[in-house]
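Many introductory courses stop at the sequence. We go one step further.
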Amino acid sequence: MESSPSTLLKLLLPKTPFIFKTALWHTLSISPTSSKWDLRTEITINILRDLIGPNSTPQPISKLQRLTCRDGGVKGKVWVSKVNLDPTPEDDVRQLLFSAIDDLGTGEEVWTKPENAALEAEWNGYRSGVDDDTPEPCDLGEGEKYARLVAETSSPVTVLYFHGGAMYLLDPATYRPTTSRIAKDTGGRVFNVRIPQPLVPAARLSPHAHFQQ
């Protein structure tokens, strides 16, 4: 399943009543998460639950990843500065993770021990003075956008954010409305980590190894 507009339409069209109900409950504040999520997040999470829930037709993980890891572009009240981190040379976290997995097993399991890998992430901050549909400036590099982000902070707070998605789905782009609110409430900045798509333990290794560094 390619993540093309026509494919997404074929997938989502049968779920139109479900999407409408989700949107209505959110608008009327009936949903238990309506006060915590914006409408986009509410719809995204509930569609995802419907796709991978116990009554759904099983889908290959790679297809679900392509569907849920789309970035529709940066707009609204958020600064986004993307970064790429090289693999960390430290091996302590990697060995601790492997030891924890071994302790939970019987010793007969066979599994691949991943190497420390590069990590993608983005700095998110609150952007004031713009509408929700205002696109990000197209003439700024990542360093310049980071400088603008820092200029709007009012505290030294830095929040490390590991997004939802069971460590293999969704993307930092999905949670930019949330991280923007966090940045606004704290006056600081948010380091929004892209969880690596290889499954556990690789998905846990890189974020925690870079955090330790």
